[in-house]
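request received
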Amino acid sequence: MEPGWSSLPADLLRDILARLPWSSHPSFAATCKHWNTIVSPFYPAWLTPVLLNAVDIGSTNIRYYSPYYHKIFEVAETLDSPDAKICCANGDHLTLYYRDGHYIIVVHANLATGFIRKLEPLPIRHTLDFVIDDGERSMFGIRAFAGTVEVARSIQRNDDSFNKWESSEFISEGLNFRTSSMTNPVLHHGLLYMLGEDGRLAVYHYML
Amino acid sequence: MAAPESGDGNNGAARMVTLISSDNTRFEVEAAAASLSQTLQLTILDGGGGGGDGIPLPNVDSATLSKVLEYCIKHAPAAANGGAPNATAVDRAELERFDNEFVNIDQSVLYSLIMAAHNLEIEGLQSLVAKKVADMIKGKSPMEIRRTLGFPDPTPEEQAEMNAHMLEYGWAYE
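response:
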């Protein structure tokens, strides 16, 4: 190997790396192959945003902390609504919902670009208990009430806007399934899991 | 050939040693200064480097060695004090000023220095250069780092790897 910075002994590179802030590690690693071997694996940036808070002072500003950059970011667009509730964070997206008159608005915020996209308003009678973004272009709104569970789904189009909500009734009253108010539904590999009050676990597959 | 001095230089002239660079230039320097190098310290404690002998340093050229010794001579008194207790704030400030000035040099010289510090195990000098390099590349993109440190232009493959890496790991570069 030719002498030069690109072949600096590993312990010297570690010495330099130790003096750099975390935010410089990705660049350091990408500089050349040899340097890349010095940097310990880190999470890809899209995994790292951690929500800090959504400040509600007449408008909602979404702020989050990224340990990767050791920095607090603020989503550029202001959500012009008080009372927004944070439902779900998936990858670099954050899902919130809020009431607007007689409608419920679900919004999908891209934390990386700061762009906020609103889904089609739902009439208030569809009050949602949970909204889940599956991270694969499907948004689920879930309402669990009096033994029935309704699941509405909205699919994201290629232009990133969302289709209308399609509702489906999940569990008939005959099953008498009441979701536990202590837990939230979980989406995993396309299946929606919900824990019942009596400890039974309900599984929903939206394709069936 | 003169017999090596047995004293430690407390009563009179300090003990001197001779270092020989890769291009055969001889440097005469106080043993205390050369001893900032862990590697040389062992040889010197064994009585080497005195008189007509010299300690050959096949990995260090004369330009680099003279720079290394400049650092060692400046730092030897503080090192002899065990670093701190007697050092005044003025002394420390002066050393800091010297250090800042000392590393304000071209990246190719920094490279030779850090390699020499590494070979000769001069911890303070290695740290000083490492810190300088870190300051030079902090906050820079991979391409800027390469330019700062005089890397050759990346091959198309290297460029593609760099781009892919930054796409995955650096979504918010400012």
